Amino acid sequence: MSKIRSSNTQFEKNFISELRKITGKKFKTNVSGLRGKPDIVFQKEKVCIFLDSDFWHGWQYPRWKKILKNDFWKRKIENNRARDRKNTAYLRSKNWQVARVWGHEIKKDIDAVISSVVKMI
Prior knowledge:
By secondary structure, the chain is an alpha+beta fold. It is built from four helices and four strands, in the order H-E-E-E-H-H-E-H. The chain is globular, with a radius of gyration of 15 Å.
């Protein structure tokens, strides 16, 4: 598990590179000063973007949790999902706009995802 990246994954690198090209705006990445350590932050606009991998953040988890053989992994993903919800709620309560983007959405149509982010800023 120590070899699994929590940041700078390939889909994150691709997304960040395209976002820089299209927006031309300055933003920070992997901001540890904000709750949940958002992957992308537009400070002035108060916009946080989380780029969530499908497995670790449990995309459609209820549909596939039964295939996980080990309770450790079930708890891990359930805790990740709960933490994501709490962090999103907290940031929104502090007047941040929050977008959570799934890895498969970026891989499927990066332009559409970037377009939705641009609308937020």
